[in-house]
Amino acid sequence: MFNGIQSRLVISYIVVIVLSLSIALFTLFLLARPLQARAIALRLSSELNQVVTQIQASAAQVSPAQRSPERTLAQIRKYLPQTTGRLLLINKQGMVVLDAENQWNGREITLPNRQRRLPIIPRSEEFSGRMTAPDGSIMLFAARPLSPRLFVVMVAPYPKTASSIIVELWRGFLVAGIIAFLVAVLMGWFIVRSVATPLKQIARATESVATGDYSQQVPVTGPVEVRQVATAFNSMTTQVQSSQQAMKDFVSNVSHDLKTPLTSIQGFSQALLDGTAYDDAARQRAARIIYDEASRMRRLVEDLLDLARIDAGQIEIQSRPIDLTALLNITLDSLSVQFAKKQITPEINISALPHILGDADRLKQVFTNLLDNAIKFTPAGGKITVTGGDTGVPPDASTVIRKRHAPPPAQSFARISISDNGVGIPPAELKRIFERFYQVDKSRKHHSGGAGLGLAIAFNIVKAHGGHIEAKSVPGQGTTFIIWLPAAA
Ligand code: ADP
Fold this sequence. Notes:
Elements: H1 5-60, H2 69-79, E1 86-91, E2 96-99, H3 114-117, E3 127-132, E4 138-147, E5 150-157, H4 162-210, H5 224-273, H6 280-311, E6 320-322, H7 324-334, H8 336-341, E7 347-350, E8 356-358, H9 360-376, E9 384-391, E10 413-420, H10 427-430, H11 444-448, H12 454-464, E11 468-474, E12 478-486
Parallel strand pairs: 7-9
Antiparallel strand pairs: 1-2, 1-5, 3-4, 4-5, 6-8, 9-10, 10-12, 11-12
Helix pairs in contact: 1-2, 1-4, 4-5, 5-6, 6-12, 7-9, 9-12
The structure holds adenosine-5'-diphosphate (ADP).
């Protein structure tokens, strides 16, 4: 029952409401009497002042000879009904001479401070406090001497006890509590609706994903936390969908690329078996094709295994000091036959390439692939340039994936670029060439003889070295591949 957000919210609201009402009641309990007493004392004092001023004013109109206690009494009686406090006249001995309510006439009242204050305070000085009435009740009073023998006193009952205040107020508190409770339920309902509705949508979409429908996208609504969940969910399904698609593409690419040479091998071996290849030249040709196709298949399978191993992190990338200049020269030498076939003399422009730590065999594989592509996609007599030097952080350093437990990003990078003036790559295709099986133009495929895996492997090897690779190209003018590799400290 208390598992839902709404019930939990409402319970927490109730706790807060009860707590704040109790604190308010408690504070009221502590403060009510002193505050009330203060208000009464102020009222008594102001009434006392008015009465005394009036009496003194009318006394001033008669000559001293005409003044008498009886006259004063008569005047005071005139003001009795005008005050809310109870007016008393008390003589020096503390005896009530006049009581506005005619109850305490002739009774004795002790005003605190009177004895102490009388000799020193001037006539007009007022004093006030608490006193005990003849009937034993506690009263507040404000007093002022009218003459050396007479005091005017205003009294009012001391405020009721605090518990009686609570008895008076509990209804108000109950109503406030009920209203606050209703508001809490309503607010809880709104908050819960704004959180629960999108969460339920996400839950439903997740169930659909579990049954294999990856096209699910949920609306991004509600509080920021819920919106974050929805955004994360949407990007997750997009990624799952695209990796599902990549997997499907991969399988269909692999099967297609294996089927083509197999069909060819099957056809020509059959020609050998059934005698369709009847003379030596035909048999020679069939054997050559079978050999070439088998080699192509072997390369493809090797590339696939390579990629799979890099993906699974099974490939051990060695971390040995490498002289990149020497490595580039060795790679160029090993491709001298291909260069010669295309009548290309590579231009080499290497200066101060920093030493790096890495796997020489793997990096040679990368350079070979890039140079091989450059030769393949450059017309005979074209130009291929290899440049090397040292540089700062790559332009897009965020794509440099640091190896686990790798030292902080290197201050300096070795930068190697391989440019050609060949066919180039259209801008729209440029960002996809590092994808597996991606080939710019399927019709180039036969021409290149590859399966579109070389650059994907190169990308992964460079990444595993903590480096970065990118391509720039102008169609019809040529292509440049640039590699950054972190320099050894
Ligand atoms: P492949 O083995 O098919 O060459 P790669 O992964 O090495 O596969 O290259 C992918 C695609 O990128 C190639 O099919 C080609 O279309 C394009 N490409 C690579 N290098 C160059 C280049 N230097 N000039 C033009 N296109 C290139």
